[in-house]
Amino acid sequence: MIKPITEEERQHAFKTQRKPEVLEKQKLDVRYHIEDPVVDGRAQKFLEAFAAILKNTNYGFVLDQYVRSSAKCSRCATECQVYQATRDPKDIPCYRSELLLSVYRRHFTVGGMLRGRVLGSKGLTDEKVNEMAESFWNCTACRRCTLQCPVGIDHGLVTHLGRYILSEIGIAPRALVISTREQLEGKTGNTSAIPVPALLDTLEFLEEDMEEEKGVKIKFPIDQEDCEYVFFPAVSDFLMEADTLMGNAAVFTATGGSWTIGTGYFDGINYGLFYSDRMLDRIVKKVVEETRRLKGRKILIGECGHASRSAKYFVPVFCGGKDAPPVVNCMEYLYDMLKEGKIKLDPNVITDPVTYHDPCNIARQGWIIDKPREILKSFCKSYVEMTPSGKNNICCGGGGGTVSIDEIRPYRTTIGGKAKAEQIRKTGAKYVVAPCANCKKQLRELMEDQGMDDVEIVGLHDLVYKAIIFDESLKVKKEEKEEETPEAVEKEVE
Amino acid sequence: MQPLMDFVAGPLFRLTFAIMLLGLLRIVVLTVWGVIQARRQTDDKVMPWKLITENTLGWLVPVLRLWKTRPIYSVVSFVFHIGLILVPIFLIGHIQLIRESIGIGWPVLSDNLADILTIVTMVTAVALFLGRLFSKEARFISRPQDYVWPVLLAIPFATGYVCNNMAIGAGVYQWTMLFHMLSAELIFVFIPFTKIAHCVLVPFSQMVSTLGWKFPPRSGEGVAETLGKKEMPV
Asked: What is the chain B residue with the closest CA to A184?
């Protein structure tokens, strides 16, 4: 698939080193920062956490299936972009899964326990836990390997579980834990720690910008009750992806859609998906709670892969099955509106070649694949496809939460993203449309580190915003525009 | 010699075959029970049946899925499975024995086809063994059983072929047949307890993996409670 990294690249990728005194104190040699891991009796604590999780979940029966049927065919190795780059056999998905499966077999199955006793093996060691702590975070959780497993092992699920257990003994990337803490217990209640007044300021500023650019009053409706959609973008979009948000607002204005952003909670990000089901549960509940507070009918997720997946698949899991509000991704809404003819896009605006990057969390299960492509083809002069794509896409290299771990950037852009960079280079595209906050951040860093500065990473709604044509009836009339109401003046003075 | 042959072909065969059947039945029952339990415990009852069926059938008959990844290995492995499944079940000699003992039978493979499949199975078994030995990836993740199985599975095919097709003396025939039966019985005994259990688990695997993501609604709180972390901050 791709060429392995050179020795020079390897040294660059692994150059991140934490301070020796920290390594000594934490007794854990991983590249990501950790707050406060269990140090004494780590293996024992790991087993306790594992047991607690098995007791309260259904993971046991899945692991039984995997332990019994794993045939070690190694087909997954050819699919894993991390392994293809490092060619370190420890990065083979099946090897990674075996790290945890062997613990399960040895400590939680009768056969394993008997064999352990007879053969006198001492079972799980601290070293093995440390190996897992490194291995499970080398994986981008893209789950591409799962598609090629003849016996149906979902290595992504095993890694997911492994990270969950590790997090219960204090081993999880600090970047994710801190953000989640702010989101669940902090004053601002979101991962980017944006206070509500700052959010409102930002939105007002964007509204002014949009009016100036498009000549239309495009609003971000705040705290409106009884709307069809309550909107939860990746909260970082408010800081970093203004164009995407403006696109969202423009689409809703043009289509007369009923939507709102709640000031009680407005963050679609859910790092629980990456390291802890406990957090995943608590975070999706906040989304549903806010939707219900505003009497909204549906949850609308912005351009973000993991936010979409965690809402789409885990709102029903944790918030009442079919009684939970339905989850819609903003691209689905856009597509429907385009098909209904409620959106007009100017085909002469985007003339440079455009390609589409499938975020794993949206495409792997076959959820949203063709819709964004059809949207793009409807107004972009030149659309180029990446291969492979869709369900079988290649991860940006920052999946599974790793993109938020800034200290491993050299690893991400040298190893994780190597395959993606080659793929993008082949398309010769000017715009890479990546409808995911994580993918966008990773791809921008990737382009920068791989010397591909001429490529522009954008959201789907960014391009839509550029090309959208508003109905004349929506245009602000000149006089109206210049007229300054007393309230507006007052506000400005404040 | 004859009493030994009778024992191996009679009681020992019945015992080992019963171990295999009961062992596999146990696994199937546990899996089905697991599926039912997981479905009962989750609030999200919606299953992507179309996708599950497509993937399950796609891997049970993987003709369209072989070419993307490790194509040579995959085709060899697929061909290996054909003979491995068909020959023991549809060989005329086996059916005659079954008919004699329990009075039922079913259509059989022609001798020629059976012979071809037997040879193909032996050749592919050796190829799989060598493939594992010479692939860096496969070698790294292989356990002892992964090397033993292709060899072990080839033995009854080789011995059966010798007995059926080669002009050998009665003594040699008896020993070869004994070896044939014993190796098959060894296989029966190990099937439920090793990776060959995938022969009954593959039909469930996609469903199990899908259900794996459908957590019980109060699992998070339950874990926090068990670990005494209920009131603990993030």
From this structure: B234
